[in-house]
Every structure is written in structure tokens, then in C-alpha cells.
Amino acid sequence: MCAVFEGVHLIDQVPLQDVDLLQRLNHYFSTLDVRLRHGQGWLIYNASGNRAGRINRFMHERLKASEFPFSHYFLPWREFALTSYLLQRELQDVDDRKQEMTERERQEYQIATRVSRQTLARLATADLLILSGLTPQHEFEVEHLDKTIERRYTSRLATIILTPEQPHELALDVARLGDRGDEVWARMSTKLYETNLVAV
Fold first, then answer.
1. What is the pTM of this model?
2. Per residue in 116-139, pLDDT tens?
């Protein structure tokens, strides 16, 4: 079965269980202006391998086909995790020893700081953030994710999250990373489920 949604062709075979999801996503992008006004996004579990690739390609195509102006930021989890590490760990440590740095180290620090701040600004201000492949492994990633979700929730900005994990797996991962992981997941999941459509 080759699926076609409003001119978007998916070359590979679409499993039956994904046809409904792609139809729902198609409806979401057909009404994207309304969704963005209300800060509505998606939380898509079990999105790995071919399924994740299929969903990501579909969203890229629909974003390109959009006819009204809005800002979006598509960010793979590995880049989010790297930014989290730089902001929460590396750049803070470097700040303490700036006086001892060589000229080259100072330049590298300035570049890393500028790139991280640009990423942070886009995470906080893009009308639509798509975060693909969410798999938290470290406490600093969860801290940064929690802050990002909080900022976007407060500003009523839409977020689409794809994770290869099942709901209980993501909850366990967040809960085990940090002294107050259960509290963090409770806070984070409340905001996510309040503002996002969910697919498993």
C-alpha cells in the first residue's frame, strides 16, 4: 500500500497501524495555523527506525507545503543533548577558568557559546518545535528538556516530540535521572498531555 496525503507521496510501504497516525498528522498540518494559535502539538511514542523516518519525512514535506508564514525548528535529539551538555556543564565550567585560557580556546568558547545561545533562542521562540528521537540518558538533558517544555507551555508554543520509547519507558527514564525525577516527570507530562495529541 502506497500512501498519498494531499500530494505528499510516501514511497515505502506504510504498515496498517501507521495509516491512522499519518491521516491524523495530515489533518493536523491541514489546520496548522489554528493548531499553532492554540499551542497544540504531538507526542508520538514508539517512533524508531523506518517508522520514525517515515513520520519525519512526512512532516518535512508538509512543512515545505505550508502556505502561511511561521517559524519552525526541527532538532534531532542528539543535537538537543549536545546543547544541553554545553549549557548545563561544559560552558559553565569554562566560565570559571576563562582567565587561564589561550586565545584559541577563548575563540572556541565564544563560538560554542554563540551557537548554544542561538539554539536556545530557537527552542524558546519557534512557533513549532519538532524534537525527534527523544531518549534521555543524563540528568542535564532532562533538566534542559523540562525548562524547554516549561518555556514553550508558558508561551503557548506548539511542540512535536517523537520518541522511540513507550510511555512507561520514557516515564521511567526521566524518573531515574535525578533526585527528583518523579516530580520532574509529573510536571513535564502534565504539560505535554494537556497541550499535545498523543500516538503510541
1. 0.86
2. 788 989 999 999 999 999 999 999
DSSP 97: T
> Where are the chain's structural domains?
39-49+71-199
Per-residue pLDDT tens over the stretch 27-77: 999 999 999 999 999 999 999 999 999 999 999 999 999 989 999 999 999
Is residue 140 predicted with pLDDT exceeding 80? yes
- DSSP letters for 155-184: TT-EEEEE-SS-HHHHHHHHHHSSTTHHHH
Task: Tell me the backbone φ, ψ of residue 4, rounded to 5 degrees.
Answer: -130, 125
Average pLDDT over residues 106-110: 75
Cα 66 to the center of its chain, rounded Å = 20
Domain 39-49+71-199 = CATH 3.40.50.300: yes
13 torsion bin: left (phi>0), alpha (psi -120 to 50), beta (else): beta
149 three-state secondary structure: helix
Collapsing DSSP states into helix, strand and coil, what is residue 197?
A: strand
| Nearest CA among 186, 92, 80, 90 for reference residue 137 | 80
Q: What is the 3-state secondary structure (H, E, C) of 73-90?
A: EEEEHHHHHHHHHHHHHH
Question: Is residue 54 a contact partner of residue 104, using CB atoms and an 8 Å limit?
Answer: no
The H or E element that residue 43 is part of is strand 41-44
